[in-house]
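Amino acids appear as letters; backbone shape is given numerically. Here is one record.
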Amino acid sequence: MNTTTSSLGQRLANKVSIITGAAQGIGLATALKFAHEGAIVVLCDVKQAAVDAAVAQCQAADAQAVGFVVDVTQREMVDAMVKSVLAKFGRIDVLVNNAGITQDARLQKMTIEQFDRVIDVNLRGVFHCAQAVTDTMVAQGSGVILNASSVVGIYGNFGQTNYAATKFGVIGFTKTWSRELGPKGIRVNAVAPGFIATPILDSMPEKVIEDMVHRVPLKRLGRAEDIANVYAFLASDEAAYVNGAVLEVSGGMTV
């Protein structure tokens, strides 16, 4: 892909875009959407083989794409990735803080290890990545940070004390950073997906998934692409006046 020109209709042409948790599910769909929209895609995840496969898919879409093995809980890995991206491309335009995990249990049964692990990935990891790119975006006078919250981060959910806390927390990050960084030309927004058909649902019983579908007015689970499309809009100049927003993408399940 020629990075000196942009194709008509490519909303993210030449925007250097870091996506965490990019090897599967919503992260991979977002990377592919960004690739088709002309972005330079930086894919981060924890397993080398999965990162390589995701990069290859983006390159097959004629995008410039690179991959890094990054555990977002490890600040030195995040910093090394950002340093490499800057050395190669000279700027960072978009960060999609997508990486996240679940380790569910009712309050009385949740272990300290389960609680700490989810907090570490879903909250501390978002902090690490955002802080690592912010100086660069401030120096540029532009940038977009997009955080993955959840409807669980708005309404709570049975058995998800740790996950809900992180997704509520991410909304707090988003509101705070939009105030701090907006005057510097940086927009910060969050997306709150509802029930999305991704590998994170694989362990759930079929009856639970049927109940999920029943609660959604559109009568289907969301697709990863449904969330990716929203991220692409928020990353683009079409959303130039959207800052500090939490956009629920749930098929109307909370109506």
Observations:
- The chain has one domain: 16-248.
- Strands lie at 16-20, 40-45, 65-69, 94-97, 143-148, 186-193, 246-249.
- The helical segments are 25-36, 48-60, 75-89, 112-140, 152-155, 161-181, 206-215, 224-235.
